[in-house]
Design a protein that fits this description.
- α1 links the parallel β1 and β2.
- With 321 residues, the chain is of the alpha/beta class.
- The longest helix has 21 residues.
Length: 321
């Protein structure tokens, strides 16, 4: 089966180059497809020049500034291709060496899955000028739902009593719903692997934050109905690394954790799915099982680079979403 790694990029040339860098993902250029989806004309030209220079297959697609629009354009390109499987990578994130091996291995199986999502995910964060490897989506639901969130949130943001109470209600409802429908203690599970069958389920372009969770839940519904082979995989060791050192769409839209209006939009879309019978309480996906060769060494992710913008002295911590 034919697999390609699809990289969606909108603004970071340095991050784009990491995907083919031997010190990072080291994806073969012939296995790479770059989808440039940006409102920045200067960046579009830079990314295009890089792809031309490195002889990497690339496409420039129409952007409206939202992640959903870009991801849907990746699906359109993938479905129109002769590739059988797509690994979708946010251009600011990157795959580990183990990830490259695992996804290539999946393409060799007699029966490959339609979709794979991640649990126990890893991210890089700068906290007080120190780099940490975190588990951003592994949460303590009891603490998030029943903890003293309102007092802490109001003190930290300086918002009015009414606004703080409103955000607290959204916050509690959001985590209550995620507890029902997501995978165990994982509040969000990124889907990285898609067959063409799975790629027909597009991202909701009216939702700016949480569109990937809604799409994952759509795939989960199809799996529960027996129409898709969808699995979760434990990210220990990691296949995919979120790089949260730059301000992404979530931080910008939420005013760096001060504005939770996006949760209202997300919860309304979730309610629509519930009314359509597309959500399943406390149902878990089957876990992906891989028969590793006896010579294969499972190893934890480590940065190996002399680039000072990506320091190697990362410490581990657990950080809730």
């Amino acid at each position: 089966m034919k697999l390609k790694f699809y990289i969606l990029t909108s603004e970071n040339l340095h991050a784009l180059k990491r995907h083919n860098d031997p010190d990072f993902s080291n994806i073969l250029k012939e296995d790479t497809v770059v989808v440039i989806n940006s409102l920045d004309e200067d960046y579009i030209k830079e990314a295009e020049d890089y792809c031309k220079l490195e002889k990497i297959e690339y496409y420039i697609t129409e952007s409206n500034g939202t992640p959903s629009k870009g991801k849907n354009s990746v699906f359109d390109i993938f479905i129109a291709s002769d590739n059988d499987y797509c690994v979708l990578i946010d251009g600011d994130d990157f795959l580990t060496a183990h990830g490259i091996w695992m996804y290539k291995h999946l393409a060799t199986l007699k029966t490959s899955p339609d979709a794979v999502c991640l649990v126990n995910q890893s991210s890089l964060r700068n906290i007080d000028d120190e780099l940490f490897i975190c588990n951003p989506f592994s949460v303590d639901y009891d603490d998030l739902i029943n903890g003293d969130y309102y007092t802490n949130f109001r003190e930290e943001t300086g918002l009015s009593h009414e606004k703080s109470m409103y955000f607290e209600s959204l916050h509690k409802k959001y985590y209550t719903e995620q507890r029902k429908y997501s995978e165990g203690s994982e509040v969000h599970c990124r889907v990285t692997w898609f067959s063409k069958k799975a790629a027909k389920f597009k991202f909701n372009e009216e939702v700016i934050i949480g569109e990937d969770t809604l799409q994952m839940l759509s795939l989960k519904h199809e799996a529960v109905q027996g129409r898709l082979d969808f699995y979760s995989t434990d990210e220990q060791p990691a296949t995919y690394i979120y790089d949260e050192r730059e301000a992404g769409i979530v931080k910008i839209e939420s005013d760096f954790g001060k504005d939770y209006e996006w949760m209202d939009t997300y919860l309304n879309a979730l309610e629509d799915m519930k009314n359509a019978g597309q959500l399943h309480e406390y149902v878990l996906l089957p876990e992906l099982k891989i028969d590793y060769p006896s010579t294969y060494k499972l190893s934890k992710f480590e940065l190996k680079t002399t680039d000072t913008t990506f320091p190697t002295n990362a410490r581990e911590t657990k950080q809730a979403a």
